[in-house]
Hints:
Blueprint: E1 6-9, H1 15-26, E2 30-35, H2 40-50, E3 55-59, H3 65-79, E4 84-87, H4 102-130, E5 133-138, H5 151-171, E6 176-183, E7 186-187, H6 194-199, E8 209-210, H7 211-223, E9 232-235
Parallel strand pairs: 1-2, 1-4, 2-3, 4-5, 5-6, 6-9, 7-8
Helix pairs in contact: 1-7, 3-4, 4-5
Amino acid sequence: xxxxxxxxxxxxxxxxxxxxxxxxxxxxxxxxxxxxxxxxxxxxxxxxxxxxxxxxxxxxxxxxxxxxxxxxxxxxxxxxxxxxxxxxxxxxxxxxxxxxxxxxxxxxxxxxxxxxxxxxxxxxxxxxxxxxxxxxxxxxxxxxxxxxxxxxxxxxxxxxxxxxxxxxxxxxxxxxxxxxxxxxxxxxxxxxxxxxxxxxxxxxxxxxxxxxxxxxxxxxxxxxxxxxxxxxxxxxxxxxxxxx
Length: 244
């Protein structure tokens, strides 16, 4: 159990981010769900009714440094510390490479890669003052296995893996761990339908991952894998090692 710990999750209004938040709540952590969508406050309020920890929602824009700074300061004021941060906010435009517009590329890279960078930078500054902390970024299976149509998305997610490694080395001796988790084909509101059905036959386990399953991986890496840093953990049903 993680009673007394404080976990912060970005992109937490739905999908994997919500599942991570709920898994921390099940472990009795205090949890702050953040999202640019104001609905995050209602989502958090419902969780707060179900679980023992202090759970709240916070509107935060990961592409705005001022919003990140303000949000982190508000959390420190309310909770006194942050133990774990899950940089999960992201998304992407899925198109064949030559069909990607400038706007498609910029939108995807700004949200996924730049947004993660801005969050990591401010979180690390906070953790340096605090003396410890654990960051887990959301990368993607597409970084190692590419079903096509993911030029901008993979550029961003590969960049996240690179940043994870760089930050891990920079602060390994400062009691700050930085890792990432690469979910496989995960059933979420953002990818249900044609894309999911098309890729599912390539998964050796012949089913999609649930958000609840991959959430357990995030929580383990954040809180239990205390000698792990700079790593990307794949939770993909075997896709990265072979097709069946």
